[in-house]
Amino acid sequence: MLKRQTIDSKDYRNAMARYAGHVQIATTAHDGKRRGVTVTAACSVSDNPGTLLVCLNHANPHNEIFAESGIFALNTLMASHEHLAVAFSGLDHLSVEDRFAQAEWDTITTGAPALIGAAAVFDCRLIDAKTVATHTILIGEVTGLRTGPAGPALLYMDRGYHSV
Question: Is the pLDDT assigned to residue 1 strictly greater than 70?
Fold first, then answer.
């Protein structure tokens, strides 16, 4: 049996800062409330059926709405959407209404807010949620999909935004 080795969380965060992640906004709606969060921890799980996962910090009690609603959309950002990434990160302390007012939104199949002009929107029905350490992993089956214009992707790396 292998001995469990512990690493320093600060060292881990510094190493992960070197890892480029596509910037996305996870959104949901429930009982007249909307929520959106900037994320880089999201990826495809399967293409048949279309399934993806998103990781959200469960220390923020506002993120509970994702599990309560049973739906979410993953909105893939382009370089021109950097202002939205900043707004939905919470760093500038905008209200929910002010965050969503910075862009045009509609819905596809589930009722979760879908960003008009996103590189892609994956509209999902929540099929599982797992708590692992500091985050909740949302696993969603894609029930609706929209692709937008081609263009430079917005990435986050070395604690800053970049485009490719």
Answer: no
DSSP state of 89: H
How many other β-carbons are positioned within 10 Å of the β-carbon of residue 12? Answer: 10
Interatomic CA distance for residues 29 and 69, integer angstroms: 7
Show the domains of the chain with their CATH numbers. 21-163 (2.30.110.10)
Tell me which amino acid residue 155 is. L
Sheet architecture: strand order including 24-30: 33-39, 24-30, 71-76, 120-132, 135-147, 50-57, 42-47
In this prediction, residue 69 has a pLDDT band, given cuts at 50, 70 and 90, of very high
- Say what the pTM is: 0.93
